[in-house]
Amino acid sequence: MRATEVPEIDGAVLFEPTPHADERGFFCRTFDADVVRSMGLDPDAFVQDSLSRSARGVVRGLHLRSGAGEAKLVRCSYGRVFDVVVDLRPDSPTFRSRAFFELSGETQATLYIPAGCAHGFQALTDTADTSYRIDRPHDPAEDVTIAFDDPELAVPWPLPVSSVSRRDREAPGLAEALKRLEG
Fold first, then answer.
1. CA–CA gap between residue 136 and residue 166 (Å, rounded)
2. Distance from C-alpha of 79 to C-alpha of 143, rounded to nearest angstrom
């Protein structure tokens, strides 16, 4: 497994496994505590795993948590997604920077997203399963959502948006979300 720092987002890391393929399909390790530790992260910090299934064109996000925030490991276990990270940590050298990734079931790459960064994705295939491993129990009272189509962020979603949740559709823009994070 190879781990690389993401230059656009301070503290973000991309973990890329080495799939072993044969006529049956493939096998790969998607989490390795020693590799995670080698990047300065605590592999034991993650306390919840979740999974979402999305249809082609669905956008989920942009989401983050207030307070202490929430670090996460994100992986597309089946299908493909266009993944977006926005650094919203005021003290970060990459504050307001964006990074885009294609995560897929073929590569099984995992993206580490530091606390204080917004995250979202769009499903690029008919079915896309996305796994999340988070470092704090989820508390809906801390949820912060930013409009996926905020012009200030100008996320270049690769497909027409086919569906979003009510929460995402009614989300405020970046400026309002930043005020909520400050207060």
1. 25
2. 27
* Residues 60-115 pLDDT 10s: 999 999 989 999 999 999 999 999 999 999 999 999 999 999 999 999 999 999 99
What does the alpha-carbon distance between residue 100 and residue 156 come to, in Å, rounded to a whole number?
9
Active site residues: 63, 132
Our measurement of the distance from residue 175's CA atom to the centroid of its chain's CA atoms, rounded to an integer in Å, reads 21
Q: Which residues of 141-161 are buried (b: 16+ CB within 10 A; e: fewer)?
A: eeebbbbbbbeebebebeeee
Report how far residue 69's alpha carbon sits from residue 127's, in angstroms, rounded to the nearest whole number. Answer: 29
Tell me the longest C-alpha to C-alpha distance in the chain.
55
Is it true that the peptide bond before 62 is cis, omega within 30 degrees of 0? yes
Ramachandran assignment for 119, one of left (phi > 0), alpha (psi -120 to 50 degrees), beta (any other): beta
Tokens of 147: 């409009």
Q: Tell me the three state secondary structure of residue 168.
A: helix
What are the backbone angles phi and psi of residue 87, rounded to the nearest 5°?
-80, 115
Radius of gyration of the chain (CA): 16
Alpha helix ranges (H) inside the chain: 33-38, 166-169, 174-182
Which has the minimum average pLDDT: 19-23, 61-65, 127-131, 161-165? Answer: 19-23
